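Issue 218. Parser rejects a valid record. Input:
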Amino acid sequence: LKLNDYNMAIEFGAHNGRLARSLANIHQNIEFRACDIAPDTEKLSETFAMDNLLFSRCNLINEDITTIAEGKTLFISKSSLCCLVADDLNRLFNKLSASNLDVVLMEPCSHILNESSRLMSVSKKHNGHVLFSHPYEKVLKQHGYLVVYNSQENNLSMLYQRYYPYYLTFIYARKVHLT
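Output the parser choked on:
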């Protein structure tokens, strides 16, 4: 965060905000927004009172991201985009791209995916949720992103089987600014 001069980070699908809380504690000069659709999300701002962290109940797919993002902002998703169908994923990436937000994804995928993989190539049910494996690199490039790091490129995705046999895919992508 500091090396790229971000002054804000938005966590999508933050749940209890464990990731945002940890990062806000380490990077106290950066503003964090922990966004989730759960009804009690905003109460967490009082529970975990921090000067640089605000919990917001919002659905970034249907809301204007520019009302939240300030300055150079990093969008973070951890195990949330895998719950989106392809149309919602594309709508979200359109908004992120239009708002010039860089992206970090830590998402489970049931297969190692590449440029030729289709959207929603695989889906599985877990605890009543349908989880999709998206070819994130391909989709990000379609929305004007330069993928700086993709753990799937070198088969470095981490296999974790605690809940289901999935690979944890880590991607860092920067919005390409055309001049």
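Fixed in the parser; the record now loads. DSSP finds four helices and ten strands in the chain.
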